[in-house]
Structure formats: C-alpha cells, structure tokens
Design goal:
Layout: H1 7-15, E1 61-64, H2 66-69, H3 77-84, E2 88-89, E3 106-107, E4 115-119, E5 122-123, E6 153-159, H4 164-167, E7 174-180, E8 187-196, E9 203-213, E10 218-229, E11 262-277, E12 280-296, E13 319-336, E14 342-359, E15 374-394, E16 402-418, H5 422-425, E17 454-470, E18 475-486, E19 490-502, E20 507-518, H6 522-526, E21 529-535, E22 538-544, H7 550-554, E23 563-574, E24 580-597, H8 604-612, E25 619-621, E26 623-644, E27 647-665, H9 670-675, H10 684-691, E28 697-707, E29 710-719, E30 722-724, E31 734-736, E32 739-750, E33 753-760, E34 794-802
Parallel strand pairs: 4-7, 22-25
Antiparallel strand pairs: 1-6, 2-3, 4-5, 6-7, 8-9, 8-34, 9-10, 10-11, 11-12, 12-13, 13-14, 14-15, 15-16, 16-17, 17-18, 18-19, 19-20, 20-23, 21-22, 23-24, 24-26, 26-27, 27-28, 28-29, 29-32, 30-31, 32-33, 33-34
Amino acid sequence: MTRHRSPLALALLAALATPAAPALAQETTAGDDRAASTLDTVIVTGTRVADRTVAESTSPIDVITPQALQATGTTELATALARAVPSLNFPRPALVDGTDAVRPAQLRGLSPDQTLVLVNGKRRHKGALINVNGSQGRGSAPVDLNAIPIASIARVEVLRDGASAQYGSDAIAGVVNIVLKGNETSGSLQAQYGQYSAGDGAQYQVSGDGGLALGEGGWLHLAAQAGHQDQTDRARPYLGANPGTGNNPPAGRVVQRFGDPDVDQGGLAFSGEYSPQDGITFYSFGTYSRRDVTSTGFFRPATAPTNIPSIYPDGYLPQIRNDTEDTAVVAGFRGFTAGGLDVDFSYNYGSNDLGFEVGNSLNRSLGTATPTEFDAGSLRSTQHVLNADFSRTLDWGLAYPVALAFGAEWRGEEFVQSAGEPASYQNGGVVAPGETTPRPGAQVFPGFSPGDAGRFDRNSLAAYVDLEADLSDRLSVGLAGRYEDFSDFGDTASGKLSARYAFTDKVALRGTVSNGFRAPSLQQQFYQYTSSSFISGVQYAVRTFRVDDPVAVELGAEPLRAEESDNYSLGLVLQPVDALYLTIDAYRIEIDDRIVLSENLVSTPVANYLIAQGYSATGGRYFTNAIDTTTRGVDVVGTYRWDLDGSDLALTAGYNWNETEIDRIAANPPSLAAIDPNAVRFGRAEIGRITEGSPHDKFFLNGVWNLGNWSFNATATRYGEFTVRHNTVPAQDQTFDPEWTLDLAVSYALDRWEFTVGGDNVFNAYPDEVLYANSSSGQLPYSSSSPFGFNGGFVYARAGYRW
C-alpha cells in the first residue's frame, strides 16, 4: 500500500534537483571538566560534512564525553545519559516483568522507539522486548542502550532534532550516536564498588580498554567490562483488611519486593581499521553483552487460589529470570575514486535475544504435579543492513564548496517468538478450591504457547540525498531527502531543510523544518501472549493479540500504518565572551497515527466474547494507530569556563521544558462497538503516561573544579512534576512534586592512577509517597514513574589506571 506524504516532503524532494546547501549539526557538552573545548569537537551526527564542529551546528547537539558518563556512580549507559542530557528521561520501573530487565529511555517526552540509536553512525538493532505493562514507554520496542559497555565509548552525540530524512525510520524525537574508542594505543583499567544508603543494592564493576597498532596501516581497540548488582527493596508490610486470608498477604512482615533487580552483566567491544594502501580502508567494529536479571512479581499468599499450600505453606514470591544476549558487528571499507568521489560500503548485523525463566512458582492447573521452575520461552530481534554511501564536494562558485552525499540502504528485519516448555503454559484442568475454572500457566509469567510462537520478517529499500553548503561566511543551509519502501506497509518519503545565520561571531540563529516517520515494529505487529495482569487489584488473564488475528479484528484491530511527524525547531546560539556558550532551542513535533497498545479490554461483554471464541483469557488488547499528538518544548544549554589562579572551574547548565497534548483519539470501530458499546480503547492511565507521565521540566547545574592533582565534581538536578493517572478513578490520580538531587565526587590523580569517592543523591531524596489507595495496601510506597528512581542515596569508590 502506498503512503501519501505531506506537501512538505514532496517540495523538499523536488528541490533536490536544484542548487541548494548544507545540513549541519552541533551544540554543547554536559558535565565535562573540559566543557568549553567541545565547541571545537568535530561531529558526525546530523551532517555529512567532514569538518563540522559543535559551534557550527544548524541543529542542537549534546556531546557527552567519557568524563561526563563516569561523573556519577552509575554503571548503566542510559542512566548516565539521563543525568547529562536534560531532555532525556530514564525512570526505573519495577514489577513490570521483562521491562525490569530492559528499561526504556525517552527523549523529549516521546516514545522510546521514536529515538534512533546509531553506533559509529550505523543503525543499531532494536531490542527483542516489547513493553506491554504499566511503565513509561508502554507499547514500545526500543534499543537496549545498556547493552553497550561504557568502557568502549569515546563520546556520545545526542541530536535533539527530527532526522528521518537523513537516517530513516525512528528518528522523530532525535538521534543518539555512540562513537566507540579507536585509533589510539592508550588504555585504562578501572574498578568500582558502591552501595545504597539503605544498606542494599551493592554493586561492583571492573572494566578496561586498550589499543594496539596493526603494522603501519591499522589499529585495533578492545574494551570489556563486567559487574554485579544486588537487588534493592523498598516494599513495606501489607496494611489492608483481613491479612493472611484469600488473596491478602500476611500482616506485620514484608513479603513483597519492590526495587531494582539482581543483575549479573558483562560486555565486550572492538573497533579497528586497516589501510593496505592510500585511498582504501577496511574497518570493523562491534559489541557483545550478556545480562542475567532476576526480578519478582506479586506475592501469592498461602491461602490464595494461585497457591498449593502443600508446596508453599507460607505462600511464595515468584521470580522472573531474564537472560538477555546482544550481538552487533559492522564491517566495511571506504575509499575515494580518481574523480574525487568518496565511497563507503558496509554490512551491519545485530541481534538481541531475551529469554524468560520463571522460578519459585507453580502452575496451579497442574495440581501437586506442577514443577516450580519453568522455561517460559524467548524473544529474538535480528537486523541485517547493507549500506552504500557516497560523498563529494562540488564547486558551484559559492564562498565554500558544496558537500553532496547520497546513497542507498537495504534492511532486513526478523522477529522470533519461541514457545516455552509445555508445563509453563499448559492447562492441566485442576481447579483450585472455591474456583470454577482452572488457572493455567506458570504464576507471574505464563510461558509462550506454540500458538503464540512464530517467525516474522520484512525488508526495506531506501535512497537518500543530502546537500550542505556555506553560502557565505554567515549563512549555512542544508537540504536532505529520503525515500523508503517497506515490504509490509508500503513506501514513504521525508525531507529536511535546515539553516544557520551568524549575525556576528557571538550571535547566530538556527532552525529546521522536516517531516519524518516511524515504521511499526515487527513486535507491535506480531507479538501475542496471554499474561497475568493485576488491574485495580484484581487479577485478569489478558491476551495481547496480533493485529491480523480474526478475534482482534472483531475487537477493532486494523493493519498498522507508519507514524508520521512534522518537526519544527528554532534556536539562538550565543557566545557573548570566549568562555561562555549558550543555546536556546524551541521545538514543535506533530505526530499523526501514533502506535499505542490499547487498553486492557476486560469488560464482561468482551470476556464473554473471548470465551465464546474458545479463549480462557478474560480480556484482550492490541496495537493500534489510535492517536495524534503535538509536543512542544524548549532546550537551554550553557557552558562557562573560568580560569582561576592555579586552578580552573567549568560550569555546565541544562534545562528542558516539554509538553505533549493529544489532538485526536480514534473512535471505536463498529465491530468493537457491537461487542461492547462502552468499550474504551485508549483510557485515562495511558493518556496520563503520554501527556503527564514524564517530568514537564528538568534542570541541572554541573561544576568541575580542577586544583592541582585534585578534581571536585558536583551536579544539582531538579526533576519537575509528573502525574500518574488511575485507570478509572480520577480521585486516585496523583501529581508528584518536583524534587532535587545532588551528586558529589572528589578525585585525586597520582601519576597514572586516579582515585575517586563519591555519592549520588547525597541528601537521600525520595519521590513523594503514593496515595494509600494506589500502594497495594501499603506495600508499594513509591511510583515506578519517578525519573530518578526510588532507591535513595548511593555511595561509591573507584580506582583507575591509565596509560
């Protein structure tokens, strides 16, 4: 099916046939003791020009250095980025099944899969997990950022602008480009240990990297890290009525767990090049990681119908064990022809596997014959990409040469859902006392059945062209266009126009206008599963249907279409004195046909319909292009370097204000209205997640004071208010007040050694406690949507050696 794009795309594509100009991209750093120097950093994201620097950008870009990534005690890349980029949100949800293990990050308040992730400029593969529970990013299948070892990273470039015309699908909110270390013989070793002030969550990590020369024409850089994290727990005793009876936990002791999971992780990375002769270079880079994560579900009391007292006399807390394995390899060569054309051919492979095992559980329908450990199945996402990229400079008689880039891409994607062992999903027919029907499948996470399993793939072809030019010493302009054809939903086109005008050396205005798209993920089209879900304290068996399932079609499902966006930005770049750099960028992002996961349709009419179709599920849901949204915001970033007598002080401040409104909610299709006239496909809780679930604003101020061998680092962060809505009861909506955190660290350098002690959230700040009515009778005191988690203060010590 052919997709029709807005007149903007057609106009921009048509304009490519005429003389045009450049598309650049840059901005400031965050949290580095050499903040001012990053203005001269040559960037590779959002531009095809080889020598564009941060200060020359037409689009806002944050350059995050290794020092900034390691300025706090976190060992997770996504957490480090959230502390350095004001528009990036990375909450720490709990009790959300696989999302405990693979948490999603949001840029500019949009969906996690509306941000494109690159490594060395090449598209990163998606994670296998589809987030289907009640967390920020519900319904998304994003990249697993934490699969990339921090030890391997030279810098991260965060392009805060729509870039589908330059990079293709997903780049609606922006682009995160991770640049790996390379072309150097230096290296480092580092060890870190830390623990939360509450006495749990102990963490340790060891890491290292190093480079070596490969003769006179090449080099290889290797990096590795490994570590462990103990679980945290902020759960409290059950305070409800009739403790210890039915589904109610016992009184006076903590039986639930609520916090970060237990994690064992390790990762490797490599990057290398070899030039056998001038004009041609072979290159390759890649990463591998493995992470074993143990989280828990809701406690099953001894007298609950989900328990067998002869197996668990005191009840049980079931566990979900996720084993995630991530592999990525890119290989290619680049060179130039006699005619001045630069060429780059590459092959890009990536895969992400996520296994589900259930422990300390049972299948109630199997009676006393049930196992207590289960293999519940797995998910796998795979990507193959072939790229042919060409570039050259053109002399059009302008002040500077014009940069032309063009190329083509073939991408193949595959999603595999594999069934678990039979006992993990079987209905053994045994009915618990007092019940009328069996409860099949492993408690907390029933396994994927053979009916759920499947292998699905698609491919796409793309072509792009990009022109960038400095029309004068003051004016830079860029024009980009891209056309893509997908095997599953049709074709699409996008374009981008960008410009920067320098009124003086100290004042410049920049802006962009573009449209973009995000193709529906294979997970959103084909994932299906019957899960055990607690909705307002009641347990339901809810089935996620594939959109082409005949039952889903009767409930209103339709073939998914690509999301379409129009992006606008306008920014001011100020450098009033040499040491001060300030940017202010306003943006507007309009998205049509956003793909969301529908509400859990658990009404009696829907349950009766599902039973009549032969399902044991008591509810259903599916993915749908249900809403249009508009997001508005402002980013402000500034850096200042102050040279003092015998020392220097670098200051970095960042602020983001962001607001999303829902412009349209699609009406219920007639088939769903015939089954349940009162059905709500997109309800209060999900509206709240999209419009109010992430902080409306965020501010940070970082200072690094270098005094001889000593370095002092401090970051104060203010997280703005956010709101969590109840599914059905407005009185249980809650808005959480803004909160400040303070991170401190002091380092001492001795020859090649560096020793650091520090604390994150040193004042032990916690978010507001949730209303009692939302706390599972007092057991879950904090919101999983908190942008800085709910673990309290963290102290750590680190020792490193560099050469």
